[in-house]
Amino acid sequence: MSDRTETTHARTRRLPQINPVWLLLAALVAGIILMNPGFVEPTGYMNFLKRAAPLAILAAGQVYVITSGGFDLSVGSLITLVVVGSSMLTNNDPAATYWVIPLMLGMGLGVGVVNGLVVCFLRVPSLIATLGMMITLNGLAFLWSGGAPRGYLPDTYRFFGRELVRDVPLVGFIPVSVIVLFVVVGILAWLMHRTNLGRQVHAIGDNPVAARLAGVAVNRVRITAFMLSGLSAAIAGILLGGFAGVSTDVGSGYELQAITAAVLGGAQLLGGRGSVFAAFGGALALTAIFTLLNFLGLPQPVRQVVQGLILIAAVALAMHRRKQTGT
Amino acid sequence: MSGSEGAPPHKTKSGFRLERWAPLILLGGAFAIYVGVVLATGQAQYLTFDNLIAILGRSIALGITAIGQTFVILVASIDLSVASLISATAVLASVIMDGSPAMILPAVLAAVALGGLVGLTNGLVVTGLGVNPLIATLGMSLIIQGCLSAFVSNFAGSVPAEFQVFAYGRLGPFPLALLFLLALACLAWILLRFTKFGSDIYAVGGNEEAARFAGIKTRRIVVLSHVICSVCAVIAGLYLASRLRSGAPWIGADGVYDLESIAVVVIGGTVLAGGRGGIWGTMAGMLIFSLIDSVFNVAGVDSFAKQVLRGIIIVAAVAFYAARSKRIVA
Amino acid sequence: MKRILMATGAFAVSVVPLHAQNFDDPQEFAKQQEQLQAEPMGPEGQPWLQHIGGEMTETADLGLEAPATVCFSNAGVNNPWRVVGYTNMMQEVANHESIGDFVHVDAEGSDDKQIADINDLLAGGDCDVMIVSPNTTAALTPAVERACEDMPVIVFDRGVNTDCPVTFVHPIGGYGFGIQGAEFIVENVDEGSNVLMLRILPGVDVLETRYSAGRRILDEAGMNIVGAEFTDGDNAKTKSIVEDYLMRGDIDAVWMDAGATAVAAIEAFEDSGYEIPVFVGEDQQDFLRKWQDEDLTAIAPTYPTFQWRTAVIAAARVIEGEPVPAPEWVLPQPAITQDELADYVNPAMPPLHYAMCGCESMENYPDAWGGN
After folding, report:
1. For residue B87, which of B156, B164, B35, B18 has the smallest C-alpha distance?
2. Where located (chain A) (predicted)?
3. Is C126's Cβ below 8 Å from some Cβ in B?
4. Nearest C-alpha neighbor of A63 from the set A52, A51, A75, A53
5. Which value does ipTM take for this structure?
6. Cα angle vertex A209, ends A205, A210, to 5°?
7. Are residues C308 and C166 in the same domain?
């Protein structure tokens, strides 16, 4: 990217633009390596990436909604619904995977469409609209399964979340979920930062009225953002179900973690600013925080306190920087 | 929370304003459904005075919390830390009291002080550091819950019988707590409707910049609203400690008081973007929630279907009056 | 430094009395250990009708007429254990002509809501008998006391701090559960072996007692407990925790305070390429199947869901004026061992079905429980 012919002026201006989330991530990873040198082995960092994958994908989708000026609280229960629904539909039949997975991805898109329609046309604030969706989907997951899912997830389904690609040069092996992670984040980042859709998402988040006047189909873009978030939740659900199997509360808490990750990556709540890569970094950083606290042997309560403090500090710092740079 | 610099708010001074009456219409509808379901299932015994009082008393903790939440939402902020604060104060109060009537006053004072501190911090982080209130209070919620869980993991301490009067006492046919809620709502209404502070709240929520130019100390108003919200959460925590005879670190989270109180406020017609709404709408919202619960119980709705319906009802209720608006919502 | 230590000590002392409930009570431990060995009274092969200790108490003087309305205030059906139990219960209700209406209200895991539910039932439910499955012991005590003033009350699963109910139905208890699993580990690994303890949540009475009993036995047998971690009952988290431990060293046995995430824990060993060690799970089908397929050395202590049947049976007996074991109806709490494994594995049942349901001979089995 940075050409050697670039003026020093441009370079100094670019320097402070390194997103602090990468510095935070680097510091955390250094801390983890210090605590546990095994982390530099492929088993160490691949396990880490595998664990971070669902959250990172979720955050990459969430950042679309946040940048366009909304929230999506429904992703956690959508994950649950995907896992529970898959176990109901596959019904122990390995061949069912090939239609169940596309169906689940379609369901993710569908939930996104409904969220988007409710927000755009019923004018329900997204916080409430997706809160309602969260409660509804959770109920649906229970209703569908009668409270206890009926089937196992076949190995074909679990391939994406559980299997490894072996005999890879350099690293030895790569979990399939890590490949999925890079592909999904790559596509979402390209959409956000290299296409018209991404510019429009930013525009309506920045100033919806101005965007509309400039000819942006505000509703269509917002609905698309919710659809991408729903799709990313469905993918995250497939990975989580694959990694750990069926349970009825797989997704709980993921909505707030996804928002936290996006915010750590510098996404601005209520819109106008957000980067898929930085949200990815935010998700890795959040996972790294949890890992580090685990290695330090700190109990759950301390983890909560630290998470809370970091969350506030990250946003306060971002606001401080924004004030200083005057943007 | 001011993502709606869209069209200016409705300025129609005269004529029928749906927004104003929507909560009442919704409440009437909910009540009609309740009566309908009771009659249709042939359970007329549910239409007694006692039962209506029981319905009114179902969601007192939620109602108290929602009154506070109304204040912060009116100034275009939000508070996600109320649930943890409820747990924290319930535990704190019951630990300090530890069964001794003499310790009731110190316990209440300590709880209120904690609430004041939390509200002040929330307010200052939001106004001073410019942190989005959703994140600021979410972070606060994690911090409170973490600190709390570090010290207690179960019901701790106990509330003396004298303090249980708060939740279980009756004045004639009316539960004391219900009258207290009514009094608190009246107080909040007077504060919002008849004082300078009240009109400032609406001004700040409506348009913070304009309010600042009009000479209102907007930051102070936001901070004060957060303090009021936290103190209301404290009162809800004290009520729950009295009702449960003790405090446990999960009671706030179990009742989902953070998200439910926001839903109640919004169903009551207060706009998330701030500046419009009021206490009676919130009270109507609370009653709607109680009625929905009771309808489900009377009709014997399966608890999973109940959740599905509840989610849809929340969205539909808000859509009921939001749908006509031309604004672009956050 | 000394001052800090003293301050911490003083603080700790001041905090200790807060924990009114003692989760490591040697007397209760000894009692439950004895109960595990006791021969239960009642019909053989029908553990939901059996009882350990307790006097048969007459209920004829309650003067109820059949068919009567039974109201059930349920803490929630928010996990598979409660789902299986609730299905048992509804099927059992159909067996009793003396039960007319059966009114069910669900508190969805909230103390506050359950108190309101009980008040609603008292205000307008026309209940003749009430069954309560309390969400928590302390919080529901006043509501249950109020209900006792109006009608006979039967409590099951968790108890209340009052003896006003007709009876309190429950299996032996958490200490028993912890003992069964830990003793199995002690019998199957050498002294000094590495044991990982996995727990769901802190603070839940029935889980804390399982842990304290398990820990006591493992410590006394000289096991090396490498860690005791909370999993939140989350499969993904469980698997991650076990993977982390495996990166640091060998594990010879895994003790769990509840089996919901046992299969995820086992998979961590499989996926990391380790032998599956000695395992303590629970009676969920997915674990039992894994145990059979992989030929594990394992045991499944149970917290039997058949107690939900017993609560209904107790209510029916109260209506009919028949005697019930009181003030506590202590049910047996069998553990599934290798010898009985084949009797309980049933591929037709859903993975999260609890096998110790005592429901195999009921009319709508297995359809009503989600089986094929």
Report:
1. B156
2. Cell membrane
3. yes
4. A75
5. 0.85
6. 85
7. yes
| A-B C-beta contacts closer than 8 Å | 178
Q: Per the structure, how many domains does chain B have?
A: 1
Beta bridge partners of B285: none
Domain annotation covers residue B105: yes
Could you give the 3-state DSSP secondary structure of residue A69? coil
Same domain as C198, residue C118: no
CB contact under 8 A, C351 and A250: no
Domain assignment of residue C350, yes or no:
no
What's the mean per-residue pLDDT of chain C?
89
Q: What range does the domain containing B123 cover? A: 60-287
Whether residue B143 is contained in a domain is answered as: yes
Other beta carbons within 10 angstroms of residue A151's beta carbon come to: 21
β-pairing verdict for C68-74 and C129-133: parallel
pTM given for the model: 0.89
> Which sign, positive or negative, has the C-alpha torsion C312, C315, C320, C324?
positive
Domain architecture of chain A: domains with CATH:
18-325 (1.10.3470)
A50 contacts in chain C (CB < 8 Å): none
Cis? peptide before C327, omega within 30° of 0: yes
Asked if C234 and A250 touch (Cβ cutoff 8 Å), the reply is: yes
Cα separations in angstroms, C226 against C177, C242, C259 = 21, 11, 19
Across the interface, of C105, C142, C205, the residue whose CB is closest to B168 is: C142
Tell me if B297 and C203 make a contact (CB, 8 A cut-off): no
Chain A hits for B329, CB-CB cut-off 8 Å, are 119, 123-126
Asked if B73 has any chain A CB less than 8 Å from its own CB, the reply is no
| Number of independent structural domains in chain C | 2
Domain match, C49 and C136 both:
yes
Is residue B48 in a domain? no
Residue C319: inside a domain: yes
> C372: how many CB neighbours lie within 10 A of its CB?
12
Beta-carbon separation of B306 and C205 below 8 A: no
Q: Exposure of A173 by Cβ count < 10 A (0-12 exposed, 13-18 middle, 19+ buried)?
A: middle
CA angle B98, B101, B104 (to 5 degrees): 75
Digit-coded pLDDT (tens) for C115-170: 989 988 888 768 999 999 999 888 899 899 999 999 999 999 998 989 999 999 99
Cα–Cα distance for residue pair B69/B86, rounded to 1 Å: 13
What are the structure tokens assigned to C14, written together?
């001041």
Peptide bond before residue C134 is cis, with ω within 30 degrees of 0: no
Whether residue C83 and residue A148 make contact (CB cut-off 8 A), yes or no, is yes
pLDDT digits (tens, 9 = 90+) for C43-100: 988 999 999 988 888 887 777 888 999 999 999 988 889 999 999 999 999 999 999 9
Q: Is there a domain that residue B315 lies in? A: no
A125 is written with which tokens?
């604030």
Chain C environment of B164 (Cβ under 8 Å): 142
Task: Verify that C106 and C217 share a domain, yes or no.
Answer: no
- Domain limits for position C109: 4-171+304-333
Q: Does one domain contain both C224 and C320?
A: no
Confirm if A273 and A205 have CB atoms less than 8 A apart.
yes
Pairwise CB contact (< 8 Å): B307 & A136 = yes
Note whether C163 and C180 are same-domain residues: no
Map residue C94 onto helix, strand or coil.
Answer: coil
Residue C361 lies in a domain: no
Is C108 a domain residue? yes
* Closest-approach residue (CA) in chain B for C19: B156
What is the C-alpha separation between A71 and A134, in angstroms, rounded?
A: 12
Q: Do C31 and C145 share a domain, yes or no?
A: yes
| Cα atoms in the 13 Å half-sphere on the side-chain side of B56 | 17
Please indicate whether, in this complex, the C-beta atoms of B293 and C113 are within 8 angstroms of each other.
yes
Q: Could you tell me the CATH number of the domain that includes residue C204?
A: 3.40.50.2300
Query: Which residues are paired to C71 by β-bridges?
Result: C103, C130
The Cα A254–Cα A76 span in angstroms is 5
Residues C36 and C167 in one domain: yes
Residue C4's pLDDT band, with cuts at 50, 70 and 90, is very low
